[in-house]
Design goal:
Chain A has 592 residues and is of the alpha/beta class. Chain A is built from 21 helices and 22 strands. By secondary structure, chain B is an alpha/beta fold. Chain B contains eight helices and six strands. A six-stranded mixed beta sheet of chain B has the order 2-3-1-4-5-6, sandwiched between helices. Chain B has a single domain, classed as Pyruvate-ferredoxin oxidoreductase, PFOR, domain III (Pyruvate-ferredoxin Oxidoreductase, domain 3, 3-Layer(aba) Sandwich). Classes of the chains: A alpha/beta (592), B alpha/beta (193). The interface between A and B is large, with 63 and 63 residues.
């Protein structure tokens, strides 16, 4: 049977077919849907959201060591979080096959950098595969697990946004039930104390030699002969772009197994073609190794290393083609940045925060990063998951040292708090700075599309579970000053901020209200009630002051000619933030 | 080898471009074409500009469309038509929904929604404007705007011989099927005029 699948869906299908028994991940675009789809195979695969990528990888390592085939998935920056276990697992090796899927994001569609995680395979000295469409993504999960078991190595599967989120046709297969391997205690392999690590270090190099032989012969690396004037070495999505641009006018060495590279195969290919191009997205990962082997090639001299490749970029770079296109009048185009949704519980908090003077606001990763956009403008920094709190502490300590009156407010979401904010908060409590920390608990992992987390009361596969109690965690970590507020009540937020900023000790404000798009659980219904409705503007009363518009709600429309505000009933959910900021009480909630 | 065709659907997060693209792609696959479809998730969903790209033919390589490569640009919102216009072939077609969604800078009053977009588009490419919102509302299915635009797209690409209605049936709730089919047919009819 054929299906049209995204790369992420295909990887899930591949994991099921290849006998994976355990999979774990932390959500992150573009990789999120891998685990969501694996979770559907409830009878055969244990699929779990981990609080962060390090935990996800470590649980998958545990499953592998005890003898099961396992998979961990994460976005590329998540591999940084998981790098600690990865580099040592590279030494111990596997028992059941283990594949780590890294979803890279060239072009930073949804990320804070565009690191090229192919470098991790080389750095950690582990095998790597790179699919170039959904069929390959599915098939390569199986290949990766077989390679993992044959060579005793974790395997990195490196994919990119366009593999993850592009659909192509996939032939669906059946599950191969792979029996769990026996586990035998082997401290010389799995207990990486220094004496063991030194021996395993040698084993890693022996493995590398075997992989170097394997990469020269595997069918994952194939030659497609056409015209020989141009030869192209390529991998991943870049293969598709090269084919699109050159078609049968060039020959291809299409690499699916890209660490270690098949240097001799490349050398033989290069010898038979006129000009050798290396077409790869982001870093000159292959090009540098090819040039180091003394093989002449052209790569990043012509192809940009910054941003996503597209067929037209490859065509312009290598063929010097001018591609005629329809010409827009950009004077008629206004930017369309993403916005906090109408009814977003973060809006009221950011509105009040934006009004406080003399603040430095350290932000974090999630929907609430949009609180930094106009008109709220309530953010100074964003670096990585969890950094809001720890950075805020560093800022505040220095400000206090120099006698500055400026205060620091750190803003972090519930899932990000569980991910890596808890240790940061422990640091603040331990080292005592008067940083104000706001945990914006919207009862779900929002930005990636509503995944359960330790605070929601449910697991990935729908099991009701013990709900992590954020106030109890905060207190247990050493915070005495704590308030939980309703972020839709501006007065409550305003007073909590003033209170926290008046203290000379670390303080935490938790805003607790569900994401406006969240499907409410029974517990949510009980706690938050049915608050949805619509607000309306009394045009006679509206003075056109635009105070409400400064909340940045997309349901509010300001008519410049009439100098009046109106509310789009299709978007408004009746959160009443605008109603609270209107100085002339021109806004009311229908039915109240 | 039949030429690969490229369809670019653009709009604003939440307008239903992804569902329209899914129905289109599945119909093309069932009709025997190789198909690839690409979309961007995550940050772009929060009211941002979104695109959905579908390519089909005997053998498709790239899932994404380069500048100057789209055969048809279907814009669910008119300013988005202009934003994405450079992806269209000079001889390509534009089907634009005469519908505007103000973006953040417009909502807060720092600039106005641009005027005369449709007129400007018409001078730059073969453009057909339809009022998909009104058409959908007339048949009692105000949320069916995306199906109206899918119908217009299918007509615009001369793909009416493919049974997309069967694919619609697989992708919408049974209770809304009749209204969605009507929206789709109204979209086809809108481009026949």
């Amino acid at each position: 049977m054929k299906k049209l699948l995204t790369g992420n869906e295909a990887i899930a299908q591949g994991a099921w077919e290849a006998g994976v028994s355990y999979a774990s991940a932390y959500p992150g675009t573009p990789s999120t849907e891998i685990l969501e789809n694996i979770a559907e195979f409830k009878a055969d695969i244990i699929a779990e959201w981990a609080p962060n990528e390090k935990v996800a990888l470590e649980t998958a390592i545990g499953a592998s060591v005890i003898g099961a085939r396992s998979l961990a998935a994460m976005k590329m920056v998540g591999v940084n979080v998981a790098a600690d276990p990865l580099f040592s697992f590279a030494y111990s090796g596997v028992n059941g096959g283990m594949v780590l899927v890294s979803g890279d994001d060239p072009g930073c569609h949804s990320s804070q950098n565009e690191q090229d995680n192919r470098n991790y395979a080389k750095f950690a000295k582990i095998a790597m595969v790179e699919p170039s469409d959904s069929q390959e993504a599915k098939d390569m999960v199986k290949s990766a697990l077989e390679i993992s078991e044959q060579f005793d190595t974790p395997v990195l599967m490196r994919i990119t946004t366009r593999i993850c989120h592009s659909k192509s046709i996939v032939e669906i297969g059946e599950r191969e039930n792979v029996a769990k391997k026996a586990y035998e205690r082997d401290v010389q392999k799995y207990d990486l104390v220094p004496a063991t690590a030194r021996k395993r270090r040698v084993a890693v190099e022996e493995r590398m030699n075997k992989l170097k032989a394997f990469t020269e012969t595997t069918e994952l690396n194939r030659v497609e002969w056409n015209d020989k004037k141009i030869g192209i070495v390529t991998s991943g999505i870049a293969y598709q772009y090269a084919q699109e641009v050159f078609g049968a006018t060039a020959s291809y060495l299409k690499l699916g197994f890209t660490y270690p590279l098949p240097i001799e195969k490349i050398r033989a290919f290069a010898a038979q073609v006129g000009t050798l191009y290396v077409v790869e997205e982001l870093e000159p990962y292959m090009e540098e190794q090819i040039k180091a082997a003394g093989i002449a090639c052209i790569g990043k001299e012509k192809i940009p290393a910054i941003g996503e490749l597209t067929p037209d970029i490859v065509a312009i770079a290598l063929k010097g083609e001018h591609i005629p296109c329809a010409e827009p009048d950009m004077a008629l185009v206004v930017g369309r940045p993403p916005l906090l949704c109408a009814g977003c519980p973060h809006r009221g908090f950011f509105y009040e925060l934006s009004k406080v003077k003399n603040l430095m606001i350290t932000g974090d990763i999630g929907c609430y990063s949009l609180g930094g956009n106009a008109p709220l403008n309530a953010k100074d920094t964003c670096i990585c998951m969890g950094a809001s709190i720890s950075m805020g502490h560093g800022v505040q300590k220095i400000l206090n040292r120099i006698g500055s009156e400026t205060r620091t407010v750190a803003v972090i979401g519930d899932s990000t708090f569980f991910h890596s904010g808890m240790t940061s908060l422990l640091h603040v409590a331990y080292n005592r700075s008067n940083t104000v920390m706001c945990i914006m608990d919207n009862r779900i992992t929002g930005m990636t599309g509503h995944q359960e987390n330790p605070g929601t009361g449910f697991t990935l596969q729908g099991m009701p579970t013990k709900e992590a109690d954020i106030p109890a965690i905060v207190r247990a970590l050493g915070i005495d000053a704590l308030r939980v507020v309703n972020p839709l009540d501006l007065k409550e937020v305003r007073e909590a901020l003033a209170w926290a900023l008046s203290l000379d000790e670390p303080a935490v404000i938790i805003t607790r209200w569900p994401c406006v798009l969240k499907k409410h659980s029974e517990a949510d219904k009980k706690e938050f009630g049915d608050y949805m409705g619509t607000c309306r503007v009394d045009e006679a009363k509206c003075i056109g002051c635009k105070m409400c518009v400064k909340t940045g709600c997309p349901a509010l429309r300001f008519d410049k000619a009439a100098k009046k505000v109106s509310i789009d009933a299709g978007q408004c959910v009746g959160c009443k933030i605008c109603l609270q900021v209107c100085p002339v009480k021109a806004i009311s909630k229908v039915g109240e | 080898m039949t030429e690969v065709k490229s369809i670019l659907m653009v709009g604003v997060g939440g307008q239903g471009t992804i569902l329209a693209g899914k129905i289109l792609s599945m119909g093309l696959m069932t009709a025997g074409f190789d198909v690839k479809m690409s979309e961007v998730h995550g940050m772009a969903q929060r009211g941002g500009s979104v695109s959905n790209q579908v390519r089909f033919g005997e053998k498709v390589f790239s899932p994404i469309i380069g500048k100057g490569q789209a055969d048809i640009l279907v814009a669910f919102e008119k300013m988005e038509a202009m934003r994405w216009l450079e992806y269209l072939k000079p001889a390509g077609k534009v089907v634009v929904n005469d519908f505007q969604i103000p973006s953040g800078p417009i909502l807060i009053g720092s600039c106005d929604y641009p005027e005369n977009i449709l007129e400007s588009l018409a001078t730059k490419a073969h453009t057909t404007a339809i009022r998909a919102g009104e058409i959908a509302a007339q048949i009692g299915n105000p949320r069916g705007m995306n199906l109206v635009l899918l119908g217009a797209l299918v007509k615009g690409m001369e793909l009416t011989h493919i049974d997309f209605e069967a694919e619609i049936a697989k992708n919408v709730k049974p209770a809304t099927l009749k209204l969605n089919i009507e929206a789709f047919r109204a979209g086809v009819a809108a481009l026949e005029k």
